[in-house]
Amino acid sequence: MHNFHRYTVVEPDVQVEDGHEIVVKERKLKVIWTPGHTNGHICLYDAERRTLLTGDHVLDPISPNVSLNREYAGNPLGEYLRSLRKVGELDADLVLPAHGDPFRDISRRVRELLAHHDEREAEVLEAVSHGERTGYQVASALPWTRRKRTFSDLQSGQQRMALTETLAHLEELRSRGLIRRERRDDLLLFTVAQDT
Questions:
Q1: In terms of CB atoms within 10 Å, which end of the chain has fewer, N or C?
Q2: Residues 174, 180: Cα–Cα separation, whole Å
């Protein structure tokens, strides 16, 4: 069987922190720490040109994948939403994402993404409101993609991403006390918290 690696982890030449300034020729790029999509994600902001390089943090028209892949991996969606609000406050008109075309007005796109996550939160709460559900059962109850496809219509790789995104939403809701998580045998079961 052919074994291959999708990527190799390498140590960075320079470690940067939030607020660090990178100078490229005469341009100054401010590091904006934006965990969520990945733990070490950053955006780079050129205040003089009102330009933001967003990597995978802000995309248009799709929403970035924010996943929970392990049970005790924290709250990546909560981090993502905080990071999203942070870049939404920047005075950036030109946005250069890692995928897709450049677009205008970061604050407009941040508002759209926050509204999308509010809508998804309501859908997840509705799916859990009918009793104990596994993450798979919740993901199967949700519409996917802009075309509102069913979970079973997705290809296997898309199903994996949909499931891990659902788990991220469930963890964010649990962190705010809106749902409960219980381990029973080999299953994690989610229910609406009693006081919601």
A1: N
A2: 6
Question: How is 42-98 classified by DSSP, letter by letter?
Answer: EEEEETTTTEEEEETSS-SSSPPP----STTS--HHHHHHHHHHHHHTS---EEEES
Q: Is the pLDDT confidence value at 1 over 70?
A: no
Give the H/E segment covering residue 103: strand 103-104
Ramachandran region, residue 184 (left: φ > 0; alpha: ψ -120 to 50; beta: rest):
beta
For 136-145, what is each residue's pLDDT tens digit?
999 999 999 9
pTM: 0.91
Q: Give the number of residues written for the chain.
A: 196
Contacts of 89-96 with CB under 8 Å at 24 or more apart are: 90/32, 90/45, 90/52, 91/47, 91/50, 92/45, 92/50, 92/51, 92/52, 93/50, 93/51, 94/49, 94/50, 94/51, 94/52, 95/51, 95/52, 95/54, 95/58, 95/60, 96/51, 96/52, 96/53, 96/54
Residue closest to 90 by CA, chosen among 47, 132, 59, 133 = 47
Average pLDDT over residues 97-126: 97
**What average pLDDT score do residues 59-77 get?**
90
Average pLDDT, the chain: 93
Chain-centre distance for alpha carbon 65: 5
